[in-house]
Amino acid sequence: MEAVTLDSPAGDIHVARWRPDTADAGRSPIVLLHDSLGCVALWRDFPARLADASGREVFAYDRLGFGRSDPYPGRLPLSFIDDEARGAFAAVRDHLKRERFVLFGHSVGGGMAIEAAAQHPESCEGLITVAAQAYMEPRILAGIREAEQSFTDPDQLARLARYHGDKAEWVLRAWVDTWQTEAFANWNLAPTLARVHCPTLAIHGEQDEFGSPDQARYIAERSAGPSGARILPCGHVPHRECPERLIAAVEGFLADLPKR
């Protein structure tokens, strides 16, 4: 793994890069977008495995406020999913110096990947969402409330601080407070999905505690381009719970992308 720090108007962004053992220079890279409590380190060995399996470079970055990136400048706005495609992601895209890319987003990172695919249609070659939320449903809020309760245990917050340092409390509140606000109750990505024209694969775990498998079907049905849904026998984190199945599904999707 190689790591760099990007200077953006809002703060420094930590970016990591994995190169496959055998690379195909003609293949566009995969860009990973992490979940609500995630960061580069929490992808663990998945990016390296994905790079080797796909023959593509893989990039991941810590959003502002997370991991090794600078703190977020203020309170997270309700527009944070839409904003990401124009903010830190745009800076990372410029850093890649690649004409095209494939987007891979986990959980809220999946929603951000959808936004980025819609906002950068000339560059997004394919979109993969994993355990993504595309509309509000009771299971999302129930999962968040249960997780919030678990963080009353100081050990839980200490574990989060291993990855986010003194930003850990902000990371937690940015997740549980934003999603539970009344103003977020009618949020959905249907209008954005109508602007996604690249091939799309929506993956979801059948036991996902933060959203039903209907989320994946919603994404596939409303995406304007060729799309499909895949349900895996796991929970919310397929890249840890069933990585082999996840990588196999991604490999099949990538193999079917139009050649450029």
Automatic annotation (TrEMBL):
Domain AB hydrolase-1: 29-239
Pfam families cross-referenced by the UniProt entry: Abhydrolase_1
SUPFAM superfamilies: alpha/beta-Hydrolases
Domain of life: Bacteria
Protein name: Pimeloyl-ACP methyl ester carboxylesterase
Organism per entry: Halomonas cerina
